[in-house]
Specification:
about 350 residues; alpha+beta; Rossmann fold; Dna Ligase, domain 1; D-amino Acid Aminotransferase, Chain A, domain 1; 9-stranded antiparallel beta sheet; 11 helices; about 30% helix; about 30% strand; binds adenosine monophosphate; ATP-binding; 5-(carboxyamino)imidazole ribonucleotide synthase activity
């Protein structure tokens, strides 16, 4: 495929903050964006040239969307496989590949895939009954975490099993097919964001060090406090996944760093990621621009980090502090334009650059 010229239209499935920041980056390169979302008045649609509001399973609406855009990408991984297929059937080019989206939608498939690609995972078992859970707990032991296989994010759909007694009735509470994972006594959490271009070139960003609160990312700092071999291992894992899927676009893998510096993969996201928001101000090419460059068939941009970084998520009512944050010369403020600040909802973020 030759590079899409400026003036082409990029289709984005999903209307959240990632779509919003992708749309802003696309506009900067001279593209128009058409958002397809099931949410009226979404954060992304308010900065995009066009929006189609429809159901992700409405084939006629998807075919119409496919006709209006030159490439389709997604800002969230839980796009039904049927949606991606309907778009391909309607002639759309979809990047990243639906196979990568499908793997990332199911925690069991994802962890099985990691093992097949020589990427370490916590011990895990598929759970579809209380009997499965009891057997898995007997094998893996406590503490452990029971998660839904599908549709979990930001710590939702998870039950911590601290002692064997916590396993009683836990399958019913989960209410859906699950996966039991051994608890990793990690030293820190990191993520790697990498991108692969249409020509197969790969670019890595520096590792993000991430802190979570209640299962939601709260703070990312760079440089991550890890050794060179850990960085090399993360890059190798990302390269394996990108090449195995003939992937085009940005990809994120989250890891636990164990006390000996080895990495255990938690999950992957076939998209830009919250832990990479700092790249808007702190890298020569933001993760959003990088993704747009990749899917448009443009050369990847340089990923060099220009400062030490602290990125803080504004969750729920945190965003009410916008007057103080706006007045803080050390904080670059981003607000996502969400209408109501529900608890646990990502409303914005601030990035602090420490220039040395
Ligand atoms: P997840 O939704 O799977 O990304 O989990 C959210 C957060 O819960 C992770 O970032 C970790 O802080 C914690 N967590 C999830 N799985 C495990 C595990 N197997 N061992 C230890 N902590 C975990």
């Amino acid at each position: 495929m030759s590079a899409l010229p400026p003036g082409s239209t990029i289709g984005i499935l999903g209307g959240g903050q990632l779509g919003r920041m992708l749309a802003i980056a696309a506009a900067q390169l001279g593209f128009d964006v058409c958002i397809f979302t099931d949410e009226p008045d979404s954060p992304a649609s308010r900065v995009a040239a066009k929006t189609m509001v429809g159901n992700y399973l409405d084939h006629a609406a998807l075919a119409d969307f496919a006709r209006r855009v030159q490439v389709v990408t997604t800002e969230f991984e839980n796009i039904p496989a049927e949606t991606a297929q309907a778009l391909i059937d309607a002639g759309a080019r979809v990047a990243p590949t639906p196979a990568a989206l499908a793997i990332a939608q199911d925690r069991f498939d994802e962890k099985s895939y990691f093992l097949s690609a020589a990427i370490q995972t916590p011990p895990f078992k598929a759970i579809s009954s209380q009997d499965d859970l009891d057997a898995a707990i007997a094998e893996i032991g406590a503490p452990a975490i029971l998660k839904t296989r599908r549709l979990g994010y930001d710590g939702r759909g998870q039950i911590r099993i601290k002692t064997l007694a916590d396993a009683q009735g836990a399958y019913e509470k989960l209410g859906a097919p699950g996966i039991l994972e051994g608890f990793c006594a990690f030293e820190r959490e990191v993520s790697i964001i990498a991108a692969r271009g249409i020509d197969g070139s790969i670019a890595f960003y520096d590792l993000n060090e991430n802190e979570h609160s209640g299962g939601i990312l709260s703070r990312t700092t760079l440089p991550a406090q890890v050794s060179e071999p850990t960085i090399v291992e993360a890059q190798k894992a990302a390269r394996n996944v990108l090449e195995a899927f003939d992937y085009v676009g940005a990809l994120t893998i989250e890891f636990f760093v164990m006390p000996d510096g080895s990495l255990i993969a938690n999950e992957m996201a076939p998209r830009v990621h919250n832990s990479g928001h700092w790249t808007i101000e702190g890298a020569l090419t933001s993760q959003f621009e990088q993704h747009i460059r990749a899917i448009a068939g443009w050369p990847l941009g340089p990923t060099t980090r220009t400062a030490n970084i602290e990125m803080l998520n504004l969750i729920g009512e945190d965003a009410n502090a916008w007057p103080q944050l706006a007045a803080d010369p050390t904080a670059r403020l981003h607000l996502y334009g969400k209408r109501d600040a529900r608890a646990g909802r990502k409303m914005g973020h601030v990035t602090k650059l420490k220039l040395s």
